[in-house]
Amino acid sequence: MTAVIKADNLAKTYGDVQAVKGVSLSVEKGALFGLLGPNGSGKTTMIRMLTGQTRPTSGSASVLGIDVTQDPVGIRARVGIIPEQETPPSFLTAMEYLKFVAAVRQIPEIGKKADWWFDFLDFADKKDVLCKDLSRGTRQKLMFTQAFIHEPELALIDEPLINFDPIMQDLVKDYLAKYVKNGRTIFISTHILEVAEEICSEFAILHKGTLLHTGPVADLKARGEHLPAFFLSLVGKGRHV
To answer: Whole-angstrom distance between the N-terminal and C-terminal Cα of the chain?
Structure first.
């Protein structure tokens, strides 16, 4: 198998705070990998380092074979990214924002692609509305669209279902599952354990910046364990880390 994400002793320090403490992990092509942890565990910092938005304090990492410190722009050009806080430009309409994304990513025929996404995520009536006037759920739909409209081989998503109602959550979960079946890879960070157990093939548990466990979800199921209980048992033991 081919590793599309590889981190080796990756760490990030902000002043006296160690946000991520020497994390090593590998994500294989075709995985739906979940990075799990409580709020403040370092998940968002990990995604920011892997996408070249934050420079590691120490250690190394590569994404799609690209060093995160040597070519962060090259990484962002090839992957899809959804940040935890959806932030489409307030002064553009939804359609104008997607046209901007298309220009940056050199996507041809953006009109047809955009219309498909507007219909798929059920917000076609908002395409000409300024982003500042969109609801949080609709902004999340727009950010989801911009991450996948160029059909990236890898997408990194911080809290993928945040702000989505139950119907949209089911639609998105199904989309993600089908996406990896086509040979692409998805890396999500979340604290919603039931979602991770349902859709992830691999997972890692991060707590206070320390990696407590990594492995296949299938291994837990084979032992008759459920991810939420397993997570809580590890985080409970590691709460003083």
So the answer is: 33
Name the domain boundary from 133, 151, 169: 151
Domains identified in the chain, total number:
2
DSSP string, 16-77: TEEEEEEEEEEEETT-EEEEE--TTSSHHHHHHHHTTSS--SEEEEEETTEETTT-HHHHHH
Nearest in space to 35 (alpha carbons), one of 196, 228, 185, 165: 196
User: CATH no. for residue 75?
Assistant: 3.40.50.300
pLDDT at residue 238 greater than cutoff 70: no
Write out the two tokens for 135: 């609801």
pLDDT tens profile 182-225: 899 999 998 889 989 999 999 999 999 999 999 999 999 899 99
Whole-number Å distance between alpha carbons of 116 and 134: 19
For residue 130, the 8-state DSSP code is B
Distance CA 218, CA 142 (A): 33
Examine the pLDDT at 41 and tell me if it is beyond 90. yes
Contacts 24+ apart (CB under 8 A), 162-167: 162/84, 163/86, 163/136, 163/137, 163/139, 164/137, 164/140, 165/137
pTM here? Answer: 0.92
Q: Tell me which residue range forms the domain holding 123.
A: 85-151
Distance of CA 202 to the CA centre of its chain: 14
Same domain, 121 and 160: no
